[in-house]
Design a protein that fits this description.
This protein folds into two domains: 311 residues, YVTN repeat-like/Quinoprotein amine dehydrogenase (Methylamine Dehydrogenase, Chain H), CATH 2.130.10; 81 residues, Immunoglobulin-like, CATH 2.60.40. Helices cover 2% and strands 47% of the residues. The protein is built from one helix and 35 strands. The strands form nine sheets. A four-stranded antiparallel β-sheet has the order 1-28-27-26, with no helix packed on it. A hairpin with a 7-residue loop joins strand 4 and strand 5.
Length: 417
């Protein structure tokens, strides 16, 4: 359950008296890439999913120590998310056509093979109630939702291509009412259902191609929602205080913002591919760099006093005690991309060094920020060097390559002469 169901008005007042501190945990170990997701059932019992060369770790003491859990003998998988219905039944979504389930708390995992058609990725998971699980994907398209009402024994596939081209996050209030977010050809979108996914209504769109609503956070009154908008032009905090009737956006320092978590209408944190924890005390009007963390993807609240986050490390928030900054803002790991030659003529030649299985989408923008379209989309099975030679039939001038992969996003300038 990727939601913060706590009494909002109570916390709004309490936040004034409490001090919230984040620290980087010493375990599980740091790695190339990042931890893409973290999930806790209570303050002690939780799991973390490492992205590249996917691995699951489990803790029973609030993150003090972690045990590695073997999910599959297949190497090179990218684990995007992890979610549990209870202490035994849980799920891991990957970006490599694989989806896993455990019935013993992660000791053993089995591949889910009864979803038709076969899904390329699970980018979002949400367990709700005692036996209902939703999933969505893929950030690199196509768009779909999967649903189980019997603890993952059987699954229903819902084609979402009429509503979006890519889905990243899923968040449900109960078994019937929920949201999915991602993007379409015209920008970032949020969709809502009130009948368990049978029909959907669009409740938000940015109209900025290349934008995604990456993460969503919902409060107990179901009217207050905080979201991150990842963008090639301007990262944003997106929020509604009236159940989606009206929306506000606030600019964020990192274009590629992903994680979002608030304890009140005004006090919260965000972070992304190029940033650690950025804190606001005025609802997103201004941001302060906490000099902790890197490449944040998820902020997960256990309750109003304890939260965890995933990025280059696993991070923990408590409402008492002093913060321990064991790591400062950490260097982001990007794909290694060589453009030769640059300036270019009629061909754009790219040499890309993949660290593991990956997906890549390259969008093209001019220097005014105008989106010209995607020039490359590839699903990469093996790590190593891959070369591309693309026709580049655009006028003389400077352009921005917007590169999006499983590792995150980066911008590269090319010149055509």
């Amino acid at each position: 359950m990727k939601k913060l169901f706590i009494p909002f008005l109570f916390i709004a007042g309490l936040a004034l008296a409490q001090t919230y501190n984040w620290k980087s945990l010493s375990a599980p170990p740091s790695t190339t890439g990042r931890y893409d997701d973290v999930f806790f059932l209570n303050e002690n019992l939780g799991w973390a999913a490492r992205g590249g060369n996917g691995t699951v770790f489990k803790t029973t003491n609030g993150g003090v120590s972690w045990t590695e859990q073997t999910v599959s003998s297949t190497t090179g998988q990218y684990f995007r998310n992890i979610e549990f219905l209870n202490e035994n039944i849980g799920f891991v979504g990957t970006l490599n056509n694989n989806f896993y389930k455990t019935t013993n708390g992660g000791t053993t995992w089995t591949k889910v093979s009864n979803i038709v058609p076969n899904i390329p990725a699970i980018c979002g998971l949400d367990a709700v109630g005692t036996s209902t699980v939703y999933g969505c994907g893929a950030w690199f398209s196509p768009a779909y939702v999967i649903k189980s009402t019997d603890s993952g024994n059987t699954w229903k596939f819902i084609d979402m291509s009429a509503y979006a081209t890519a889905l990243v996050e899923v968040l449900f209030i109960d078994e019937n009412v929920g949201f999915v977010s991602g993007g379409d050809n015209d920008g970032a979108v949020i969709l809502k259902t009130t009948n368990g996914g049978e029909t959907w209504t669009q409740i938000y769109r940015t109209n900025e191609p290349g934008d995604y609503v990456w993460k969503m956070q919902l409060f107990e009154d179901h009217n207050k929602m905080f979201c991150s908008i990842e963008s090639e032009t301007q990262g944003k905090l997106l929020k509604t205080l009236d159940g989606g009737i009206t929306w506000q956006t606030k600019n964020f320092p990192d274009h590629y913002v992903q994680a979002v978590g608030f304890v009140s209408e005004t006090h919260g944190w965000m972070g992304g591919h190029n940033s650690g924890f950025m804190e606001t005390f005025d609802g997103g009007n201004t941001w302060v760099n906490n000099n902790l963390g890197g490449s944040l993807n998820r902020i997960f609240f256990v309750n109003n006093n304890v939260a965890f986050a995933s990025g280059n490390h696993i991070y923990k928030m408590t409402s008492t005690g002093l913060a321990t900054n064991e790591t400062e803002n950490e260097k982001v790991v990007n794909l290694k991309i060589e453009i030769a030659p640059n300036p270019i003529k009629d061909k754009l030649n790219l040499n890309v060094q993949y660290l593991h299985s990956d997906h890549i989408i390259i969008g093209l923008y001019d220097l005014t920020g105008k989106y010209l379209g995607n020039i490359l989309k590839d699903d990469v099975i093996n790590k190593g060097l891959k070369k591309y030679s693309l026709d580049f039939k655009y006028p003389v001038g400077e352009y921005i390559l917007a590169v999006h992969s499983n590792l995150g996003r980066q911008s590269i300038t090319v010149v055509k002469k």
